[in-house]
Amino acid sequence: MNLEYFIAKRLFNSKEHKSSISAPIIKIAIAAVAIGMIMMIISIATGIGLQQKIRQKIAAFNGHINITSYTGNQSDVSTTPISTNQKFYPIFKDVDGIAHIQAVASKAGMIRTETAFEGIIYKGVGKEYDWKNIQEYLIQGRIPNFKGELNNEILISQFLAERLNLKLGQSFNTFFMREEIDAMPKARRFKIVGIYNSGFQEFDASFIIGDIRHLQMINRWKPDQVGAFEVFVDDFSAIKEKTDAVYDEIPSTLNVQPITEKFYYIFEWLQLFDFNIVVILIIMIIVATINMVVALLVLILERTQMIGILKSMGTNNWSIRKIFLYNAFYLIIRGLFWGNLIGIGLLVLQKQFEIIKLNPESYYVNVAPVDINLLYIVALNIGTVLVCLLVLLIPSYIITKISPAKTIRFE
Description:
- The protein is α+β, with helices and mostly antiparallel strands and 411 residues long.
- Helices cover 51% and strands 18% of the residues.
- The chain is built from 15 helices and twelve strands.
- β3 (98-112) and β4 (117-125) form a beta hairpin.
- The radius of gyration is 32 Å and the shape is elongated.
């Protein structure tokens, strides 16, 4: 039998213990551990969830890596065509970890209706375009079909549709400027078959998605000429290594750019979340540990006579310290139980019902995204227990200074 554990269990379950002076302090300590765990779980889940959601949105509209011509053009508009007769297209076989590659082109234009007009960027895509990345943002209608004959179907954002007072199924005129001086703009009439809302204002305010063959005709490109290639990787954390590998496999006339460089200001902002999460974790663990230290000291002082009796019977200091560490461990586990229950419960509610909304202009998302990762939660619990118990070894050292002769008479 584990004597230390037996005594600790009897102490904690005794009625005298529950009505003692230390009872409210113990409840405060349990509450501190629970609140700390709730805050840590929520901060990690929302921080990582926001990072993943924003990365996902940027990649959905741009791919992870862009292959473009070697020009000084830094805009979203395609100016120099690239031939699709490349060894890496339509399947990138020479680099492992490439999930998909697709050809795209883009051109600036203006939508004109009877009551309004708006500048836009027409993104042309082909039959190999992976619509799975856009599907979740579709709120009305369907995905355009570009696998057959050339058609005028397009996908437009809810933001643009509302500004232009356009509805699903309506058609509108779009004008594209030509490169020739004094040349009349070319007009195309498109029909809305789908409306999306990504919550990413930078994309929603600009992009409509249609058949790439329209741009090939407007730009007088050949059928095998496109504006760029979008590459998707399996593992986003390896995007830098994959970018270097892709660059080594493409012709010298082409350039590569990962979205971490193209949208560097967003990804630098996202990196701040890692720092914020670490700060929150440290603060919450410190608060929980301080409360546990106070609770342990009160428990020791309350049981001074018992400590003296155990010492007089020959019990060594470490065994007595273990009794109180078992007590502290029990308190920590109770706090962690309630913290996990409430914290995970709040995350599930947010994920299912999207209770907390965010301003997309500031956070690039409409609702606070959460990532419920059991690995992170288990690591948090184990880390909290270990840190608290290691720190509690220090106040438990006071037991070694207690004299049996004095404490037996202690009132």
